[in-house]
Amino acid sequence: MLxxxxxxxxxxxGNTAFQPVAAQNKNTQIRMPCGSGIVxxxxxxxxxxxxxxxxxxxxxxxNIDPKSLQSGQLSLTFIGHxxxxxxxxxxxxxxxxxxxxxxxxxxxxxxxxxxxxxxxxTNLISPNISFVLRGWTEALTLQRHDVxxxxxxxxxxxxxxxxxxxxxxxxxxxxxxxxQGLCIAHMGHLRHxxxxxxxxxxxxxxxxxxxxxxxVTQSYDELIHNIKGINPRLIIPMHFDGMPTxxxxxxxxxTVYTVKRFxxxxxxxxxxxxPIKTEVLLLPPQRPGSKLEPRL
Length: 296
Hints:
CATH superfamily: Ribonuclease Z/Hydroxyacylglutathione hydrolase-like
Order of helices and strands: HHEEEEEEEEEEEHEHEHEEE
Largest sheet: 10 strands, mixed
Helix content: 10-25%
Number of strands: 16
Structural class: alpha/beta
CATH topology: Metallo-beta-lactamase, Chain A
Distance between the termini: 75 Å
């Protein structure tokens, strides 16, 4: 009888030991990828537009006041190159690829910098910024972020990973902004095809900000592969300094997805106004090709 009791307790202990730590501790918060548990809202008119021309595929949106954002809405502004300003109803401002050249006229609360150098990062950081998230690491470890401020969560997926034998290092990151039931991914300087585990770690993405230079980031074929793997509702091109690059990209991708052009650099986002099928939407940059004086 004693040996059966001992065997029983050994099995019980073994089952507990092989469970994840989070499963053993019910008080441990498990951070799920973007989109987990989010309800799809009923679809309404696309982009809250006032005029859509099917002939020119040109979209013009009503004027937006970020201060009047309602629950379930975000505003997104294309500042230039790869810098976007995302604002939430609780007035949290996220700026992607925060740098010295393309800057918004507002003080951000969270900034991301996917890769070091140029128009993608800066060392001139205001102490009033709550979170400064750098996407690269110089040590033999992967850079990880997962922060929440009021109604906004930002986390990253390390990319362009190098194995140094003694450890791994990553050159850049995909940053994901989650707020108001929306998931926005900034692909950064991604230079490779994403595998299934990386796609799972990114989560469900509604709006995908993609680099279209085809020179220092993904090739066109790699980009299409990754877009199909992520399967966003809306694709917004970035990482270009001239319209010829954008026009060439739109011409090529129009064979795969519907392409539209937006009339202004700021748009309102909500799950109910996203297109049912994946579309590409080109926003004009607020500061096209401009280089501003560094400022805090």
